[in-house]
Amino acid sequence: VQLVESGGGLVQPGGSLRLSCAASGFPFSNADMRWYRQAPGKEREWVATVTGGASRTNYADSVKERFTISRDNVENTVYLQMNSLKPEDTAVYYCHANFRWPFRRDRTNYWGKGTLVTVSS
After folding, report:
1. DSSP labels for 54-118?
2. Of the chain's two ends, which shows fewer C-beta atoms within 10 Å, N or C?
């Protein structure tokens, strides 16, 4: 299983970035995919979810109306479009997969290594 994030960088307040997470090695289309973030000195927090199958989305209140999560089940990639970025969005952003292997009952979790987003003037 691999989850490889990309797209982080330095952006000014009010700017936009799009993060990507390239997934491989597991049944991607059935996996619930999430973005989390961890700011310096803070605990990791959930940002957004796109479910497997129906691709339902859900967002943390702090990013609602500014961030959009989406997935491409052909490219096995999940995206996070981030608009109207604020300094408090500065964090390492992590991709997370939750899924069930075929013929297994329990779900399992995997994490990417993260990509740094810095919002600063």
Report:
1. S--EEE-TTTTTTEEEEEETTTTEEEEEE-S--GGG-EEEEEEEEEE-TT-SSEEEEE---EEEE
2. C
